[in-house]
Amino acid sequence: MDPSNQKGGAKSVVKEEDDPTKDTVTYAVLGTKFDIDRRYEVIDPIGSGAYGVVVAAKDLEADEKEGETNLVAIKKIVKAFEHRVFSLRTYRELKIQRLLEHENVLGIKRIL
To answer: Which stretches make up the Protein kinase domain (predicted)?
Structure first.
């Protein structure tokens, strides 16, 4: 997939200089930094809102032969612990998301 958006071809996902000594890779997406495990490769932004940014990524360690998909969504919640209200909101969202089971709702695979 092409990481360019429609506004003049500017890249919406930028992988920052890689440091092989770190366990994470840094991506800049829509003005938000994502420090994520090397097993994930960010493809495109999916959306952004008041609480964070969601990106599509490949799980480079998923075993497609066993029925796992290698495509995942990663959400970065900005300022999740800056205020008590934000912390409670983040906790509530994770708790509800964990309990939801519907074909149109992604489940939680990992919390990074």
So the answer is: 40-112
